[in-house]
Structures are given as C-alpha cells and as structure tokens.
C-alpha cells in the first residue's frame, strides 16, 4: 500500500477536453478566449456545447481582455486539500470579467489586507511547472 503525504502529492492539474481545449490553448498563447453566443448577445463561461437559456448551437470562441473586478474572495489560511499544503496562504477569488462572466481563480502578488470587493484586477498567466498547462491567476491592477 502506498502512503501519500502532502510533500509527495502534486497539485491536481486541469485536463483539457475537446470542448475546453480552445480555452487552454489560448492561455498558453497568453490570451483569454471564451465562448460568445450571438443568440443571447452574451459571453459565456464555462465552456459548453449549447448556449444557456436558448440551447442554440451558435457558440463561438472570441478573445476577451481578461480585465475585470474582484467580485468575491476568501483567504484560505489552511490548505483546501492536501495537494495544496506547500502553497501556504491562498487567496481564492471570483473575478467578474468586463465582458460579463465570472471566473473562479486565485489572487497572487497581493496583500489580503489591501483587497477590496470591486477593485480592478489584471490577468497573470502562470505556466504550471509540473505539467504542460497554463493557469489563469489575477493580481490587483497597477495604479496609474
């Protein structure tokens, strides 16, 4: 029997599927592409085969800026799972993109005491060291 400890567990990585591949490929290119539904006139996230509410088969992949506002967050002082034990404190967040949808993510390069709901945040592309995947994180927008 194999015993796993937090030190021997690697973080779980997303597994792109044919449906989600355009999103992950765009992140590797340092771009953000999500689906847009002409029948709804709205951007859609998470990737799906049909538009919500209309069930139209009209979803297109379009590039968005990725800029947004901090919609919600929590500071996790304990790891959410054993795989994250070495991460220390994490700021888990929901960002609302300027284009509309919300995105679950992690805030990096930030002091939790300085975070405010509604503050502007910018995307940060993080290549995962243990896999061929780029993750999308966010940080507070630089002041002008």
From TrEMBL:
Residues 61-125 form the ChsH2 C-terminal OB-fold domain. It comes from the Bacteria. Signal peptide: none annotated. SUPFAM superfamilies: Nucleic acid-binding proteins. InterPro entries: ChsH2_C, NA-bd_OB-fold, Thioester_dehydratase-like. PANTHER family: BLR3430 PROTEIN. This is ChsH2 C-terminal OB-fold domain-containing protein. The lineage of its organism: Bacteria, Bacillati, Actinomycetota, Actinomycetes, Micrococcales.
């Amino acid at each position: 029997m194999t015993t796993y400890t937090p030190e021997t567990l690697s973080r779980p990585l997303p597994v792109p599927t044919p449906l989600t591949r355009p999103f992950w490929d765009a992140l590797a290119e340092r771009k953000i592409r999500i689906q847009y539904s002409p029948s709804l006139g709205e951007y859609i996230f998470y990737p799906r085969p049909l538009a919500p509410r209309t069930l139209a088969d009209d979803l297109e992949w379009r590039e968005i800026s990725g800029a947004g506002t901090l919609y919600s967050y929590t500071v996790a002082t304990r790891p959410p799972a054993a795989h994250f034990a070495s991460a220390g404190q994490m700021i888990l967040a929901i960002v609302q993109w300027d284009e509309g949808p919300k995105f679950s993510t992690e805030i990096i390069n930030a002091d939790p005491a300085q975070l405010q709901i509604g503050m502007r945040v910018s995307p940060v592309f993080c290549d995962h060291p243990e896999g061929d995947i780029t993750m999308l994180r966010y940080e507070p927008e630089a002041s002008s």
